[in-house]
Amino acid sequence: MLSEIELLGVKHAPIETIKKNNLLGKLEKLTGVLPKDYSDFLLHFGSNINFNTMVYFKSIEPSPWADNNKLDAIEYFYGLSSTDDGYTIFEAINTYQNNFKMKLIPIGFSSGGNQICICTKGKRRGSIWFWDHEIDPIFDEGITISGLTLVAYEFKEFVAKLTVEKDNSPSKGIGGHFDF
């Protein structure tokens, strides 16, 4: 799974193993124990993961932001630490904690300020969601009511969906990081 991400052309700043372990411990005090595939990802990379090119994925259900090919984009993954302007996972959680009440945590930045999230509690624990940040996320154990689109049932399934789009067709998604 980790080598699949590296094949997409990633940029990240290596950090010391002891620092990664300490930061993961701090994170799991906030979130509870994370799914193993996702915590392994954080421990492998440590810092934010930026891509050298646009990376896309096809969700189980297309989001309102999906392009004509039903693809959404991920611009970067939040890491345990950052050496650039991007949010760390701690900053992303702090920004969106009132929206998700720790049932979901943001793990990646998508087009237009939308978020890629992982469910941390309940029957849907480990599932990956696209959040349209224009809509309040309403989510419970049984159904998704608003603002969220199911991407994958687990993190490694999400990683397997990541691809560099070969077709240069226009997309509804817009790139960039907005700092308001």
TrEMBL record:
<feature type="domain" description="Knr4/Smi1-like">
    <location>
        <begin position="18"/>
        <end position="161"/>
    </location>
</feature>
<dbReference type="InterPro" id="IPR018958">
    <property type="entry name" value="Knr4/Smi1-like_dom"/>
</dbReference>
<protein>
    <submittedName>
        <fullName>SMI1/KNR4 family protein</fullName>
    </submittedName>
</protein>
<dbReference type="InterPro" id="IPR037883">
    <property type="entry name" value="Knr4/Smi1-like_sf"/>
</dbReference>
<dbReference type="Pfam" id="PF09346">
    <property type="entry name" value="SMI1_KNR4"/>
</dbReference>
